[in-house]
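Suppose you are handed a protein chain with no further information: no name, no annotation, nothing but its sequence. What can you learn? This example shows the usual starting point.
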Amino acid sequence: MRMPTVKYQNGETVMGRWPGSSLYYEVKVLDFNTRSQLYTVIYKDGTELELKEQDIKSATGFQTRSRSRSRSRSPGRRRSRSRSPARTTRRSSSRTAAATAAASITESTPSSRRDSKLKDTLEVRLSPLQQTKTAENNSNDKHEKKEENNTAGKVKETSDANIEEPEKSQGRYNLRRRKDGGDSKVEEAKPEPVVEEEEATLSTQLDFGGKMGAYFWLLFLPAWVLFVVLQGNLDDPSLANFPPPLPPLQAFWDAQALGVVILWILFQALLYSLPVGKLSEGMPLRSGERLKYRTNGFFAVVVSAVAVAAAVYHGVDFTYVHSHFLQLATASLLVSVLLSVYLYVRSRRAAAEQRALGGNSGNMVYDFFKGRELNPRIKEFDLKFFCEMRPGLIGWCLINFAMALAEMQQQGLEAPSYAMILVNVFQLLYVVDGLWNEEAILTTMDLMHDGFGFMLAFGDLVWVPFTYTLQAYYLVSQPNPLSLPAVAAIVLLKLVGFYIFRKSNSEKNAFRRNPSDPKLSHLKSIPTATGKNLLVSGWWGVVRHPNYLGDLLMALAWSLPCGFSHLLPWYYMIYFGILLVHRDSRDMSECRRKYGSAWDEYCRTVRYRIVPRVY
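A reasonable first move is to predict its three-dimensional structure. Written in structure tokens, the prediction is:
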């Protein structure tokens, strides 16, 4: 069997990239593991990490480029980007393929060097303490994000298997090495990091089916929302009636509905802009900058509830929401498309450091769908943060309330049915809990890494308010009487799911904030080469995603009040189960790449992914 080529020898001094960032430090090679194809290196503060070959560069190459840069300071001069010695050494073909596949997850592949739009490598000095924190974000799942942001069901990327320790801002860059006793040692690294930035770095890892997938999702997602709305409006919303009869085109449009949608968004924008609530600091960006956000979502939902109550008192007919549900969905779709066009056009002027790494493929349709600019702002108004938690999420609760009023009107009831009350209360609790913990959204993949484009704009403004309200919409014309024992059983299921979800996330967050807390001394964890620990006890020792389990139980409690006559109200439960299984698979691949052998040990320790003894 052919032995792999060892590019860097033991004892050689090289530049090692800090995992998850573009920061390079001077390190010494200690060993090369031929089985895992990883180099063990040691930083000057004593921290040992395992790095892939593409994360290591020749120290001579960095010095050469630094001298060349210092001799050419004129901004008007351009020269071709030269290869560093770290990139010219021949590798075996199998090693190159593996390195390229791994590197494509977080940075451009070597082939991107050939693009004529790329600038010379810049070597700048930053405060990388922030960069490291950015690299270790949490899980790829909407419902963990519901703990983090409670925006249900959008395609979002986070990772909660990585339970990390807090980092303290001292000096420039604090490298930490966990000792056997679990205590962390904080030392200041002397060498300055080197950051490689490229202008218009092209995305190499395309999600959701790549370029062709972007075309598909742009057509399918709006069509699916209109389909379920039309299906729910039938006297018999059975899938046997597929496709549902299409109404005339004018039935999709109502100017007043567009006005209602715009007025609602402007009202929420006003509440967001008020100097009320905490001014929270976001996670560090690639440039080292930390943006500030007004986290007053709970204030917004309270004021919105008071405004709706006042409107009802003065005779405003909210059953309009039910009778014009299709037109409101179409109007929201139009607003999301116009917003996406604006976001794409303005992203053409965004600097390289303001673009999302995953939304710069060079293909207009894909970049329009995925989003190019990371944090588009109009002065201090952050468009992505606002849309994530405000118009759609609070609008979800408003639509549910309108459906309860419509049920009372159509069924001749003096009060909503038990089933309608359960759906309204359960989902209101879900949203309020998310807005109460709104600051947690700042650590999610949406805010830190995903660009703001059609995917998020459509998800925030259309997908959430017009598909997650299907249970309430269904119950207006398809009542389902419930006995008191059935009500009690559904409530118990909801409470069990909420308890698992809340306790598991609280346990994780407490460990992340202060792993040395005596209250957490009973928790066990597995150290990794990145300096972060994987929690393997408490709720996180039962399954790898206990928060997924809690969310699935809550989703089940949302659907049970609708009974079993039709599949439509079970749409969310089915869709969400598929979504979580898919995200668990993506999370497995990413964590295995990031943590290597530590992740394999973690999987042996915590065998089940979501459901104990089942999956």
